[in-house]
Amino acid sequence: MTSFRISRRYALAVVLLLLALFLGLFPASDLTPDGYYRTRLGFLTGPDSFGLSWWTVRTVVGQLRYALVSAFGSGATPEQQQAVLQSFFAGAADVNRLETEINNLAVRGVAASDPRLLSLEQQLNDARQKRAQESLVVEQVIAHQVQDVLKQENISVFQMGNVFFPPVFFKLIDLPHVLVISYVDRIQMRDQVAVRRSLTLGETDDLESAVDQALNVRSLVVPIGGYSTYPTMVSSTGPRDWMIGTVSHEWCHVYLTFYPLGMSYGKTGDATAMNETVCSLFGDEVGAAVLEAYYGEARKVLSWQTPPTPTVAVPPGSDAPAGAESTPGASSSDGSASERRPEAAQPFNPDRELRRIYLAAEERLKAGDIAGAEQVMEEGRQNLAAHGVYIRKLNQAFFAFYGSYAEGPGAIRPDTIGDDLRELRRRSPTLRDFMLTVQNMTGYEDLRRALGK
What we know:
Blueprint: H1 2-25, H2 33-45, H3 52-69, H4 72-75, H5 78-107, H6 115-153, E1 158-160, E2 163-165, E3 170-173, E4 177-183, E5 189-195, H7 201-215, E6 217-222, E7 226-227, E8 232-235, H8 240-256, H9 260-263, H10 269-295, E9 312-313, E10 325-326, H11 350-366, H12 370-386, H13 396-402, H14 417-427, H15 431-438, H16 444-450
Parallel strand pairs: 3-8
Antiparallel strand pairs: 1-2, 4-5, 4-6, 7-8, 9-10
């Protein structure tokens, strides 16, 4: 009887252990539709994914080691810092040039053993090593400069004395690419997965096809200039002004994660566009302040400082050129078209064409015509190629990603989010006032209310 009880106890223990393992490997959330999606996505992208967790651990440990063994970045004179910065950015330009020369030789079919190619590859390796040695100093100097401006602007989640949170912490690296995933029946980002930069074109196509077919989505692997992990990632090969603005832009994303606007990222297309546009405005303004304070450059005119010229968008399907805009008052006083001045044919504009494709595809998606929308996008891609603008794949994920930026004249989205955010910045006495207002928004209606619309 005793042995039977013991056997039952062992059997029960085994059952409980197996149950615990099952729940640990496949938690209840994985049995939901969203959990299934994430589990499948993990399996599909696993071999090609970029290990963000391990990268973060290695980066933080490396930064602590550097802080312990070297105080050069903080103790160097301004002249020494400037010398390192100049050397670094000159080296970054060399890397870009050498990579271009190597790619040009590869396209021409030059053998891997060709002395010219071997020489360029050795020069590239030396330039990368030199850049890596200088990058820690550059990171520390630029982080200090950006954080100093943020302190002066009094923008932080928490600040007391020398304590500033979240601190500006970024790494200059050869960035991974990002697999952008959109819903198939609407242009809206569903997910992003960091993937290996070294993916070949064939591997990229295979990954996108596998994800699309398995999850009924549309995906696209895209290059990026920055990534708002923490520490944030910034491309190591960009020019100085761009890099400072990008560091500021990515810090803004980190800052917003503590507030409703950042928490709303990805929930709707409008919320994502608002996040990206706010951070673009923020990065430009903080970057300009850093360049003025530390590099003696005149403060540039920012996009929000110039009121927009009123225009009336031509609706889809009109006889006007694709994406053309007309100025109010172009017709005669009685509105007759016969008295309008003839308009010269407009040169092809890729931004206008992308907006036209976006509008036409979105219209069909709203009508439930997925095949029709995808035909519009493919025909649009071919038309762009005929005009010398080559896009590998034009799908819902393309517009979900690139359409999330409503800042600048090349913005794809045909809405007024960019204009409205610039108007709100014009009405705000300081950048801090602007951030205090937008950080508590969750969607476009909040922005319209703030403007009294």
